[in-house]
Structure formats: structure tokens, C-alpha cells
Design goal:
heterotrimer, A mainly alpha (297), B mainly alpha (318), C alpha/beta (271), A: 297 residues, mainly alpha, MetI-like fold, B: 318 residues, 76% helix, binds adenosine-5'-diphosphate, binds magnesium ion
């Protein structure tokens, strides 16, 4: 054989960690890992702090009592807890039918026409409208004009502002959820002589109920924590809710108002409300994941 | 004939008029509901514009460049708030983009086991679910006191630079920027991760196939392929940052006078609205509405640009 | 039986559906051009031809299933019981209650087997005994034995072939006049295919059936009449235009076709 044996010192395939490219690689990997760590840390810090702070101040009475007058101790967030539920419920009453209906139009009836294109564009723009603007809008439309039977600030106004923010999420998830339903299912229903109404309501919508429910729950979770749209629509009240046409307290506005007060009792309540709100919202997020996981089975 | 007799059992061969009415009614109803999106959007613009018309008439375009915000003399200019809006969101982006995109790369490459990647992904997404008012509370009581000594060290060493020229003693631009970073991270990470996942695997294999190292292929092949989607995501995050209200309002200090220093109290349009709207009346309400209009127009442009960029991406890969 | 090309509007109990110079387009693209055809009542008619020649397109016009496609348009007349199906006054939903359809892929509803059958019957206002109808329909679709113990289970718990027979049962439960089948066996294994073919033999005693098939043996086995479609490239056109080449008794189409291209197709020389 005339070939010389290969010279391993120059052609070895062993990895040489000292090479510049390998050092640069290792360095970049370390940077990326650090970034990922930094990205996760705030969550851990915030959650841990809110949970620890919350648990130490939590007592059963906090859920059933009114906030104390400034300077006094004790009290609770009972009215704000009810208020958050009421306002969120009102926002659902407006946003869910409109959002699901609009989504049904986009997915089932529009056949990709110009109008549908415009609605989809509008939905995306609406999704980008700052939440404070939703509050300003409802203030100008409902609160300052007193169109709601002469009432200015009210739970309904707050619910409307939240509904404006929920609408795009619900439309989008309905639209996308319905598009996942196989076309053959619609054909099957139409093929036995079902009308579009029956096909949509009895066959298509039930088949897409999981993704739609996921979107609705996520939208509710987001709106339950919204504050900006509520501060000058639902306003705040130190009393128990007096009806849906009167101002009322919500947990998020309570946190905002109490955080900057110079009283220990109020700040304690702000932490308690944060705890309840975060647990509620994380719970809803996990519930939403469970629904969508359920659908994939 | 038996077939005919059976046929009689089917009473709805001909649809009753009511059935057709329901069908047409349903179609009209959902069309109207879809149209409501456009109507709401239009109404938002109209209502804000209508309420702002007095201030627009009085202050004109000077409103954007003037720094006076004086409710007593009823002279209003939104420059301080506009400057604060842009400064905080751009600074926050400068910090959040490398962190978010880096995290996204870490989550789409196989550095660690898929199980842990999913856990980290989910945690970052949960961060997006925490209400901003809670982050604001945390910023007041935890974040700001923690970073204050650090900011003061910078002030002592580099105080000759105008942007560090005041000591940090409480709320101000910098804590607001940091809390914005926390809020933007999940958005940027999630969108970048989705864009990176969409890059066709062939591209990565091609890069590895010619002997590129992992990071060479990331920087030269994978990132460029995903870049327009990532930029679209960054634009969306920018829109979000400029409109973000609660956390910023609670920690920025809400000063209506202009200050170049990043450690001084400042303002944003959203914070201005959240703070003053409740107590305002007369021309001040109109001025605030004018500021809201400016915010809407800025975020509208940013969002439409983001949509346009994302659309161009999807054309390339579908 | 001999067929004339003369088209009349007079209801003719020998003819179920008549195509009178039907041209179908998607947007500006003409998919099928100038079809004249008389689908005989009480028989099985097969549509054969290379793929893309417009068999499904024609079939789907018979119960206005193409209405779902925005770009669809039709010229000419499709006459059923003396009425043009594409007259503005005609309600496509009522058309589909008379002319049922079985699709290429089994598409049971995400409901129980029982509900799959009852759904269509209820929509058609069925007033008889529902349990009896479900059993009778499943029996006639030759899937009763597989279903009888699990009527309350989901339709998806059945195998592909069983699902397709469930879909056939669902269609016959509405007691339509005509049943359209678009390659009903193309997603099925050979054994399920044979079972579905047996079902068809059973059904043709009572229904008019039009079936699109890729499988020429299947056409020979199940059909009385066969229509052969082909597609040709036209100058200036954006694609191939389908047309009806020849329509005759199945035996004639396969043994002594009149057209050259039919001869080539049935002898397997193209397609
Ligand atoms: N929804 C549609 N939109 C546009 N063109 C279509 C559509 N459906 C079918 N076509 C076209 O019409 C022609 C006939 O299609 P089809 O009827 O499905 O053929 P076959 O069933 O004989 O295979 C083909 O060229 C096909 O591309
Ligand atoms: Mg076909």
C-alpha cells in the first residue's frame, strides 16, 4: 500500500473545546440559558411574594367584610370580590354572544368576502386598543352622557368597557375553533337536509365547543384582572354593591386605590386582593388548558 | 305503494316558512354581530374625537410639542406624557427583546430536555396572565426599593450625564421601564418561539449539513428566516407597552413637568389618563381626551404595521 | 332501453334527474362543459373517468352541495321532477331532503350511533317510531350487527367501513328519492368495499343511485348505466375542461363503447 497512514493530529474528528468556534458556542449557550432564567425569575418572584404576603394576611373574615374607613384596622374585601364577579359576569353577557356570533359569521357565512376581511382587520385593531382607551370610550359614551337611566358611574358601564376588551379574543377563538371543524361534518348535516341554522347550532358549534370555551375562559381571566377600563366606569365604592346601575368596588381597582394609601390596613387588603385575584386568574388559565387538552383527546 | 306510505311519515319535506325565517334571521343576526366590531372600533374613534374637539380647537398641534400641563391656567400640552410613553416603551423593548428572543431560542433548540422546555414555556406564559395592577403593587413594594441603591450608585458615578442627573428616591421612569420589561417578556418570548418553530426543519439541517456550528446556524440561518415574524411580535409588544396603564401609573411618579433624567418621576399618556380623568372637568377632560386620541393614533399605527409585517411573513411560508 | 337526446320538462317516471346543457365554472375556470344526461329512475348510474374531469362537480350539483363554494356558477338546467333545481325560488335545503348524499370520507356526526340516524330523520319531520327506523336503516345498510349493542356509543367508535355504512344508514333514514355517492369506497379496505357494494345492491330496489367511482370493476359490479367523463385541454383555458364523452348501459360502455377514448379508458390504456 502506497498511502501513508492518516495523520491524526490534523484530521482527528475529536471535539476540540479550545477552538474559538467551540468557545463562542459555549458562551452563547450560557448567555441564552441566563436569559431564559431571567425571563422566568420575575414570575417566581411575583407569584412567591404575592402568595406569601397573601397567605399571611388572609383570614376568613377578609372575604365577608367591607374595607375599613381610612385609619382604622381590620376589614375585608367582600364587596370588591362580589364586584369583580358582577362586573365580569356583565362583561360576559355582552361579549360572549357578540363574540361567538361574530366568529360564527366569519367562519360559517362570510366565505372570505371583503366585509369579513374588514371584520378580521378590525378585530386585530381592537385587540391592540389600549385598555385605558376602552375606559375612556365607555366614559364618553355611557358615563358622561348618563344614557343608562340617568346613572353615571355603574357596574354596567364597567362591564361594557371590559366587554370591548374581551370581544376580539372571543371572536378570534370562535373563528379559529370553527375552522378546525372538518368541512365533511357540515356536508354531512346539509346532506340530510339540515338548514344552515341547524347545521351550525347542532353539529358545527358542538364540535368546536372546547376551543371556544378555552378562548372564553382566557378572555374572562384577562378581564377579571383589568383595572384601567374600570377606574372611571365602575369607579369604586366602600359599600356593598347597590345594584348594577350604581358604582361598585372591584378587586383590581381596590388594589390600585389602596396601594398608594398611607395606611397599613389598606395595604394589607391590597395584598389580600392580589392574592385572591392571582389565584383566581391562574386557576382559570389552568382550567382553560385543561379544556383544550380535553378537546385534543 | 309502500314507499309512498312511508313517505307520509316525513312531515317536513317542505320547510315551513318559519324555518326559513329562522335561517335567514340567524344569518342576519350573526352578520350584524360581526359588523358590531367595526361599529365599536369606529365609535371609539368618534367618541374620543368628539370629546377632544374643544381641546383640538384650542391647542391645535401645539398640544403635541408643549410641555405645560397646567389645569389652573387651563393650558395643556402633552409633550411630557408623549415623551414618557415613547421613552419607557422603547427602553423596555431594548431590554426585553434580547431577553425574550434569547429565551425563545433557548426554548426551541434542544439545549435541555423537552419536558423542562415545556415547563419554562408555560411559566413564561403564566407571567402574562398576572394582572398588571398586581405587578404595579409588587413594583411599589419590592422592585423599586430593591433597585433604588443600584440606581443611586449609577447616579453618583455617572451623574454628569443628563439622563442620570437626578438621584433615585422613589417612583420614576426606570422602575416603570423594568416592570414593563416583565410584562413584555412573555409576549416577545411566545411570539418569537412560535416564529422559530415555524422555520422549516430542512433549513436547519442544511446549515448543519455544511458544517455550521449550532450558533452559526442560529444567527445565519434560523433567525433570519424567522425575523419578520419576530419583528411583527416586537411591534405588537411595542403597542402593548405604549398602552400599558396600571403598572406604569403606579410606579412612574406621575409628574407633569418635563425631566430628562431617567431616575426622575415622569408620566405616560395612559398614566396621565388614569390619574387625572377621575378628578378632571371642563377643558381638562377635553385635553385628556385629546391625549387619548394621540395614544390611539400611535398604537393604531404601530399595530397596523405589526399586522402588515406578520402578513408578509405568512405569505412567504404558506 | 334507449335514450333520446331530446329533453322535455314533462315529468317522466323513467327519468330521475336531467342535465340540460349544463356548464359548471369555478370563477372564470370552466370545470365541466355542455353536459346532457338523463339519470334513470330506480337504477344505479355510475360516473367514471380520470380524476379532475368533473365527476364530483356534476354530482354535487344534483343536490346543490356546490352552493357552499363561493366561486361556483352553473349555466343550463338540472331538472328534477319537472323543476329546474337552480331556479331562484328553489330551496336547496328542500332539494337535499329529496336527494341525499354519501361522501368520499366517512363523516359521522360526533354524536351517538342512534343520534346519527335520528338527526336527519327528525330534521325531515319523521313522525314514525324512531327506534324502529334506526334499526331498519342500520339493517339495510348492513351494519346493524356491528351497532346493535352500542347504539348509545359515539359514531367514531366504529371502524372506517362501518362508519361509511353508518353514513349510508343515516342517508336512507331520511328516505330520500335519490342517493348520490361520491367515491364512497375510496377510503375503505377491500372487505368493507364489498360490504358497501352489497348494501348498494340492496338499496337499488328502492332508490335511484348515482355513484362516482374510480374503480371500474366496481362500476361493472354495481351499476346499470355508466357515464364516462374525460377532460381536454382547451386553447386559452386555464386548465382542462371536463365533458361527458359517452353515456350508455354499463355493459355497452365496457364491451363495445362507441367512442375511442372510452375504449382506451376502460381497457386501462390511460387514466
Ligand atoms: N372548490 C373548487 N374550486 C375551484 N376549482 C375546483 C373546485 N373543486 C373542483 N375544482 C376543479 O374542477 C375540476 C373538476 O374537479 P372534480 O369535480 O373534483 O373532479 P373529479 O371528481 O372528477 O376528480 C378540477 O379541475 C378541479 O381542480
Ligand atoms: Mg371527485
Amino acid at each position: 500500500m502506497t498511502f501513508s497512514s492518516p495523520n491524526f493530529s490534523t484530521t482527528s474528528l475529536h471535539r476540540k473545546p479550545g477552538l474559538l468556534r467551540n468557545r463562542a458556542n459555549a458562551a452563547m449557550t450560557a448567555v441564552a440559558a441566563t436569559f431564559a432564567t431571567i425571563a422566568v425569575l420575575p414570575l417566581i418572584f411575583v407569584i412567591a411574594y404575592v402568595l406569601i404576603k397573601g397567605i399571611t394576611v388572609l383570614s376568613p373574615s377578609i372575604f365577608f367584610e367591607l374595607p375599613p374607613p381610612p385609619g382604622l384596622d381590620g376589614g375585608g374585601i367582600g364587596n370588591a370580590l362580589i364586584g369583580t364577579l358582577v362586573v365580569t359576569l356583565i362583561s360576559c353577557v355582552f361579549a360572549v354572544p357578540v363574540g361567538v356570533g361574530g366568529g360564527i359569521y366569519l367562519a360559517e357565512f362570510s366565505q372570505g368576502n371583503k366585509f369579513a376581511e374588514f371584520v378580521r382587520f378590525g378585530t386585530n385593531v381592537l385587540a391592540g386598543v389600549p385598555s385605558i382607551i376602552a375606559g375612556v370610550f365607555i366614559y364618553g359614551l355611557v358615563v358622561s352622557t348618563r344614557v343608562l337611566f340617568g346613572n353615571s358611574y355603574s357596574a354596567v358601564a364597567g362591564g361594557l368597557a371590559l366587554a370591548v376588551l374581551m370581544l376580539p379574543t372571543i371572536i378570534k377563538t370562535t373563528d379559529e375553533g370553527l375552522k378546525l371543524v372538518p368541512q365533511e361534518l357540515r356536508w354531512g348535516a346539509l346532506g340530510v337536509g339540515a338548514s344552515t341554522f341547524v347545521t351550525t347550532m347542532k353539529v358545527v358549534l358542538p364540535a368546536a365547543v372546547a376551543p371556544i370555551a378555552t378562548g372564553v375562559v382566557l378572555a374572562i381571566a384577562r378581564s377579571a384582572g383589568e383595572t384601567a377600563p374600570l377606574i372611571f366606569t365602575a369607579l369604586f365604592s366602600p359599600f356593598w354593591p347597590e345594584g348594577i346601575f350604581k358604582p361598585l368596588a372591584t378587586m383590581s381597582v381596590l388594589i390600585f386605590n389602596f396601594a398608594i394609601m398611607p395606611y397599613e390596613a389598606q395595604i394589607t387588603l391590597a395584598w389580600a386582593a392580589s392574592f385572591v385575584l392571582v389565584v383566581m386568574i391562574l386557576g382559570m388559565n389552568i382550567f382553560a388548558r385543561w379544556i383544550s387538552g380535553f378537546a385534543q383527546r | 305503494m309502500e314507499a309512498t306510505r312511508r313517505d307520509l311519515l316525513y312531515t317536513l319535506r317542505h320547510r315551513p316558512a318559519s324555518d326559513k325565517l329562522v335561517d335567514n334571521g340567524f344569518r342576519s343576526l350573526v352578520t350584524a354581530l360581526a359588523a358590531l366590531v367595526g361599529i365599536v372600533l369606529l365609535a371609539i374613534f368618534l367618541v374620543v374625537f368628539w370629546e377632544a374637539r374643544e381641546a383640538i380647537h384650542l391647542f391645535g398641534l401645539n398640544f403635541i410639542t408643549s410641555t405645560t400641563w397646567n389645569p389652573v391656567e387651563e393650558k395643556f400640552g402633552a409633550f411630557t406624557a408623549i415623551y414618557g410613553t415613547i421613552l419607557t416603551s422603547v427602553l423596555a423593548l431594548l431590554l426585553a427583546v434580547p431577553l425574550g428572543v434569547g429565551t425563545a431560542i433557548f426554548l426551541t433548540e434542544n439545549f435541555i430536555h423537552q419536558k423542562y422546555r415545556t415547563i419554562i414555556s408555560n411559566m413564561v406564559e403564566l407571567l402574562a396572565a398576572i394582572p398588571s395592577v398586581v405587578l404595579g403593587l409588587w413594583a411599589i413594594f419590592v422592585l423599586e426599593p430593591t433597585i433604588r441603591p443600584v440606581l443611586n450608585v449609577i447616579h453618583n458615578k455617572l451623574g454628569f450625564i443628563p439622563i442620570f442627573s437626578t438621584p433615585a428616591n422613589g417612583p420614576g421612569f426606570m422602575p416603570a421601564v423594568l416592570i414593563l420589561v416583565v410584562m413584555l417578556l412573555p409576549i416577545i418570548t411566545a411570539i418569537s418561539r412560535d416564529c422559530l418553530n415555524q422555520v422549516p426543519p430542512d433549513l436547519r439541517q442544511a446549515a448543519y449539513g455544511i458544517g455550521a456550528t449550532r450558533w452559526t446556524s442560529i444567527f445565519q440561518v434560523i433567525l433570519p428566516a424567522a425575523i419578520s415574524g419576530i419583528i411583527g411580535g416586537i411591534m405588537l409588544a411595542l403597542g402593548r407597552a405604549m398602552g400599558e396603564t396600571m403598572a406604569v401609573t403606579m410606579i412612574i411618579g406621575n409628574s407633569t413637568s418635563f425631566n430628562l433624567s431617567w431616575f426622575a418621576p415622569g408620566n405616560t399618556i395612559a398614566a396621565l389618563l388614569a390619574n387625572q380623568f377621575g378628578e378632571a372637568d371642563g377643558i381638562q377632560v377635553s385635553a385628556l381626551m385629546y391625549a387619548a386620541l394621540v395614544l390611539m393614533i400611535i398604537t393604531f399605527i404601530v399595530n397596523v404595521l405589526a399586522q402588515w409585517i406578520v402578513k408578509r411573513l405568512s405569505l412567504k411560508y404558506d | 332501453m334507449s335514450f333520446t337526446t331530446h329533453i322535455t320538462d314533462v315529468p317522466n317516471d323513467q327519468v330521475a334527474i336531467t342535465c340540460d346543457n349544463v356548464t359548471i365554472s369555478y370563477g372564470s375556470f370552466e370545470a365541466v362543459k355542455s353536459v346532457f344526461l338523463e339519470v334513470p329512475r330506480g337504477k344505479v348510474t355510475a360516473f367514471i373517468g380520470p380524476s379532475g374531469c368533473g365527476k364530483s362537480t356534476v354530482l354535487r350539483c344534483f343536490n346543490r352541495m356546490n352552493d357552499l363554494i363561493p366561486s361556483f356558477s352553473l349555466k343550463g338546467r338540472i331538472i328534477y321532477e319537472g323543476q329546474d333545481l337552480y331556479e331562484p325560488k328553489v330551496d336547496p335545503v328542500e332539494v337535499r331532503r329529496r336527494i341525499g348524499m354519501v361522501f368520499q370520507r366517512p363523516n359521522p356526526f360526533p354524536k351517538s350511533i342512534y343520534e346519527n340516524i335520528a338527526f336527519g330523520a327528525r330534521i325531515n319531520g319523521y313522525t314514525g317510531d324512531m327506534d324502529e327506523l334506526v334499526e331498519r336503516s342500520l339493517r339495510r345498510a348492513a351494519v346493524w350487527d356491528e351497532c346493535k349493542d352500542k347504539l348509545q356509543e359515539s359514531g367514531y367508535s366504529l371502524s372506517g367501513g362501518q362508519q361509511q355504512r353508518l353514513c349510508i344508514a343515516r342517508t336512507i333514514a331520511t328516505q330520500p328519492d335519490v342517493i348520490l355517492m361520491d367515491e364512497p369506497c375510496s377510503a375503505l379496505d377491500p372487505i368493507s368495499t364489498l360490504k358497501v357494494e352489497e348494501t348498494m345492491h340492496e338499496l337499488k330496489k328502492e332508490f335511484t343511485i348515482v355513484i362516482v367511482t374510480h374503480n371500474m370493476q366496481q362500476a361493472v359490479r354495481v351499476s346499470d348505466m355508466t357515464a364516462f367523463y374525460n377532460a381536454v385541454a382547451v386553447e386559452g383555458g386555464s386548465g382542462k375542461v371536463g365533458y361527458l364523452v359517452e353515456f350508455d348501459e354499463t355493459a355497452n360502455i365496457f364491451n363495445n363503447p362507441k367512442q375511442q377514448s372510452t375504449q382506451e379508458y376502460v381497457s386501462g390504456r390511460f387514466g
